Amino acid sequence: MSQVHYELKENIACIRLARPDKRNALSDQMLADLEACVEKAEKEALAAVIYGEGKHFSAGLDLAEHVEKTAIQGIEGSRNWHRVFARIQRGALPYFAALHGAVVGGGLELAAVAHVRVADPDTWFALPEGSRGIFVGGGGSVNITRLMGVARMTDLMLTGRVLNTDEAERYGIVNYIAEEGRALEKAFALAKIAAKNAPLSNYSIINGLQRIHDSGYDEGLFFESMMAALTQTTDEAKERLEEFLAKKAKRLDIPDKPI
User: Among 65, 109, 167, 180, which one carries the catalytic annotation?
Assistant: First the structure.
């Protein structure tokens, strides 16, 4: 895992994009390293944080690797991105992305599959694929549009518009704006909170909410009932509910001070 580094800290998998000389541009090797880190996290962590080394989270796809690819190779590469990103988005662990500097193209596609995104104030976001003569291939047409909507993503791709952090928060890309230089710290603190949840609850939130949103109204309500019944009948849920009713559990598990 030469281009993505992994560290387990307090049951949190810390996954660092480690190609700062290339602004953490996502190469084929980097994707393979990322998958290895995700697989390791699945076995031993309760939550995960993804962040970038150096001045940027990720400036996107490593275009140098893709100039000579055939159409079939391009399709295979895109589907590989989809497969790896799905392990993040639809796995069992909540993922928190700590963003700074450039979050561009494929970097934004990666950030979009995290479940919560925290950004430094100097972070900027763009989708320059249109000016490069290409199209998003890492799931952005599905995942980014779910965050900001089709019209806004169309604008970014057609015009090369760059969003600052405030605009990205307004568009739904960013969940939290941290104090300067503290996005990673904030993301890690949030991951620690999520790691204390019942694992089945986290799994249901990650895998259930978007599917319910994408389904029909009646189907969504039925699916919600099934998920609610499944989670609340486990021994862990009963124990946690009894602690709450006995006033032995914290009402809200949040940091004492803002981060």
Answer: 109
- Going by their DSSP bridges, the two strands 102-104 and 47-52 should be labelled as unpaired
Catalytic residue among 68, 129, 219, 242: 129
User: Which tens digit of pLDDT belongs to each residue from 162-171?
Assistant: 999 999 999 9
Q: Give yes or no: 35 in active site.
A: no
199-245: CATH, from 2.60.120.10, 1.10.10.10, 1.10.12.10, 2.60.40.10: 1.10.12.10
pLDDT digits (tens, 9 = 90+) for 216-243: 999 999 999 999 999 998 888 888 888 8
Output the pLDDT for position 68. 80
Architecture in CATH for domain 4-195: Alpha-Beta Complex (3.90)
**Known catalytic residue at 109:** yes
Would you call 25 exposed, middle or buried from its count of C-beta atoms within 10 A (0-12, 13-18, 19+)? buried
Structure tokens at 117: 């995104």
Give the HSE-up count for residue 220: Cα atoms under 13 Å, Cβ half-sphere.
9
